[in-house]
Design brief:
Length: about 350
């Protein structure tokens, strides 16, 4: 007898999530194997009841899969938490393990997407194209205040040289930058292309442009704090497209006010769960620190869109469905995550 369709409750759903996941199920011709149920709400202890009866839940970066949520999932029929992202710091892995729930993720989707968005932030901050665009539309063709610098010959530092860091290094080397990097496990491909690995303190001191591409761990939480800001070159450009809490927002605000940080580009924010992926244009921004950041003319913030390309969304959907299908057939997803990471 055929298996009963595997029910998957998908949380934090936007129209593009629905479209790409449904397209993947159709392309794989496995529509009869899955019962996908989409929820706009985020998964947390207050919304977990929506997943009652689900075999699996599919979550994203700002879902809160805490121990309390996991215990409710385990009390039902849920046996799988499928992350449609690479990071898993929002899941209590020990609680999942203790409750017999398997966790899986998408380890890589399009490193090019995030690396290219990182460079887009750098170029916009440097050449101030966002300001020039608005000026020209208003008939203002003056160049005052639009001065940038040649990226060629500048020193760019990268913290974290996984696939995204590697892709970023390749682009920056193409610009003619000297690229320094720090990673506990150096990437041979980066070494081969001419990246110099140095200690963190040396990286902070030497970089004209500093880009964070590292995962969020206890060791990297608030990696960029007041002490590190003071070690950086005065006028440094700081970019974070990794995880928001790698940066201590208050320390960065102090660095901007003092002029020690020359410009800041963020695609992530440590308290983004109350802001990002939502339209607050007819309301207000409830986060005072975030609102303060927006007052600086040398700050550009995008709302966690570094991953947002057609290629990346296709890969995320294909890997997610593949993970769930593998678990359904064998009890083991293609890309599992264990409590040891």
């Amino acid at each position: 007898m055929p298996k009963t369709p595997f029910r998957v409750d998908v949380f934090s759903t936007k129209p593009y999530d629905t479209r790409y996941l449904q397209q993947t199920v159709l392309q794989k011709n496995v529509g009869d194997q899955f019962d996908l149920r989409f929820h706009e709400s985020r998964l947390n202890a207050q919304t977990v009841a929506l997943a009652s009866g689900a075999d699996a839940v599919c979550v994203f970066v700002n879902d809160d899969v805490c121990a309390e949520t996991i215990e409710v999932l385990a009390a039902g029929s849920c046996k799988l938490i499928a992350l449609r992202c690479a990071g898993f710091n929002n899941v209590d892995l020990k609680a999942a393990d203790a409750n017999g729930i398997t966790v899986c993720r998408v380890p890589a989707y399009s490193p090019h997407a995030v690396a290219e968005h990182t460079v887009a932030l750098m170029l916009t901050l440097n050449r101030k194209t966002h300001k020039a665009y608005n000026r020209v539309r208003e008939g203002n063709f003056a160049l005052d205040g639009l001065m940038g610098f040649d990226m060629h010959g500048k020193t760019a530092g990268i913290v974290g040289t996984g696939l995204i860091g590697e892709g970023l290094a390749r682009i920056l080397l193409g610009f003619g930058c000297k690229v320094l990097a720090f990673d506990p496990t150096p990437n041979d491909a980066c070494v081969a292309m001419g990246v110099d690995y140095v200690g963190l303190n040396d990286l902070f001191a030497a970089s004209d442009i500093l880009s964070l591409q590292c995962p969020l761990t206890p060791q990297t939480h608030h990696l960029i704090d007041d002490k590190v800001v003071s070690q950086m070159k005065r006028g440094v450009m700081l970019i974070n497209t990794s995880r928001g809490a790698v940066v201590d927002t208050q320390a960065v605000l102090r660095g901007l006010k003092s002029g020690h940080i020359g410009s800041l580009g963020l695609d992530v924010y440590e308290e983004e769960s109350s802001l990002f992926f939502e339209d607050l244009s007819s309301s207000y921004i409830p986060d005072d620190l975030f609102a303060r950041l927006l007052t600086f003319p040398n700050v550009i913030i995008t709302s966690h869109q570094g991953f947002f390309t057609e290629e990346a969304l296709s890969t995320i959907a294909e890997t997610t469905i593949g993970n769930i299908q593998s678990y359904r057939e064998s009890g083991v997803p293609t890309f599992p995550v264990t409590s040891s990471g």
